[in-house]
């Protein structure tokens, strides 16, 4: 595979839980992704950028070594890489708001959990030996860590280990295997990483532009634009009810002295309960609109 030196390189997962969302993110940031004959390398049509599609475990290595300028990776994979390898590590640029999960210790559901100290002298199966070892070290617990690369949840049933340390999202896999989560080792989500010390000079400007756009894409996710009419006397109450909003814009309404229009960007979810509360405070004609793009 030949990778031209003058193009910015972004590493994303080829297949798996982060793959599609990572490409969507690039598209939302205005990159036109061209799926060519080369499955490992997608070109960006409208910018000098290449997207490298690899196993998620390899993304950290490519970004740490500066082979790629940017990467999208689970924080769990990044931390594991850092725990195992000395030397410069990729820098986290921003959290991306998807791929949320947590690395947890889980034990048989029927056993009473006596706290982390109960793990001393026990065997723990995990695909994250580096992160787990540091967690145990911080607590002065000596346990035997058994590295497995899949089906970690069956280890206790097979008597391979007493407990496990694995990713949990809904908890369905733990439940199906008769296990319960007892400790959280790491909260994770997908993050944008960059090469240690930042990209080389030639890629700096493009990397900054893209990073700014991605910041806007992430900020717009879940953000809503809210518009309503309100009596002036209720403004304080109504402003307090707007979730995660900065200072709202207040405009007079034509022909009405005591009523104003309120416009605000809400950074948090706007639930039906919020609208009911606003209505109860005197608001009317409440509109909630999605935000497509945002530049901070
Ligand atoms: N159940 C889950 N819910 C949400 N996010 C998850 C879940 N499981 C894993 N993730 C996140 O998605 C990332 C990728 O998960 P995936 O299962 O696709 O990895 P993988 O099998 O190691 O893939 P690869 O083939 O690239 O090595 C994980 O590292 C984690 O950050
Ligand atoms: O709490 P839950 O929602 O059940 O999710 C947890 C499961 O998801 C991940 O595995 P995945 O399904 O990606 O399969 P894998 O083990 O083959 O990677 C993780 O390794 C857990 O096994
Ligand atoms: Mg992997």
UniProtKB/TrEMBL annotation:
Coiled coil: none annotated. It is an enzyme of class 2 (transferase). GO terms for molecular function: ATP phosphoribosyltransferase activity. Its main location: cytoplasm. Pathway: Amino-acid biosynthesis; L-histidine biosynthesis; L-histidine from 5-phospho-alpha-D-ribose 1-diphosphate: step 1/9. Pfam families: HisG, HisG_C. Feedback inhibited by histidine. This is ATP phosphoribosyltransferase. It comes from Peiella sedimenti.
């Amino acid at each position: 595979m030949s990778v031209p030196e003058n193009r910015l390189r972004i590493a994303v997962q080829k297949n798996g839980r982060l793959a599609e969302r990572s490409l969507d993110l690039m598209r939302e940031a205005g990159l036109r992704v061209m799926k060519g004959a080369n499955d490992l390398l997608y070109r960006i049509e409208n910018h000098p950028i290449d997207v490298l599609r690899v196993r998620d475990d390899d993304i950290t290595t490519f970004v740490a070594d500066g082979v790629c300028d940017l990467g999208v990776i689970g924080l769990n994979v990044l931390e594991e890489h850092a725990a195992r390898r000395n030397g410069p590590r990729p820098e986290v640029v921003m959290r991306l708001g998807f791929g949320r999960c947590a690395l947890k210790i889980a034990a048989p559901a029927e056993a009473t959990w006596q706290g982390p100290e109960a793990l001393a002298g026990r065997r723990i199966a995990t695909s994250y030996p580096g992160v787990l070892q540091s967690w145990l070290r911080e607590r002065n617990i000596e346990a035997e860590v058994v590295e497995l690369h899949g089906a970690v949840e069956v280890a206790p049933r097979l008597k391979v280990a007493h407990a496990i340390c694995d990713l949990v999202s809904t908890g369905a896999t733990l439940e199906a295997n008769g296990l319960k989560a007892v400790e959280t080792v790491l909260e994770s989500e997908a993050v944008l990483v960059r090469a240690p010390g930042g990209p080389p000079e030639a890629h700096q400007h493009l990397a900054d532009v893209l990073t700014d756009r991605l910041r806007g894409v992430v900020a717009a996710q879940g953000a809503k634009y809210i518009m309503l009419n309100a009596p002036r006397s209720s403004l304080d109450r109504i402003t307090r009810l707007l979730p995660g909003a900065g200072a709202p814009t207040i405009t007079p309404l034509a022909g009405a002295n005591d009523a104003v229009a309120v416009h605000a960007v809400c950074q948090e979810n706007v639930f039906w309960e919020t609208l009911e509360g606003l209505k109860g405070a005197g608001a009317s004609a409440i509109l909630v609109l999605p935000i497509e793009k945002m530049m901070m």
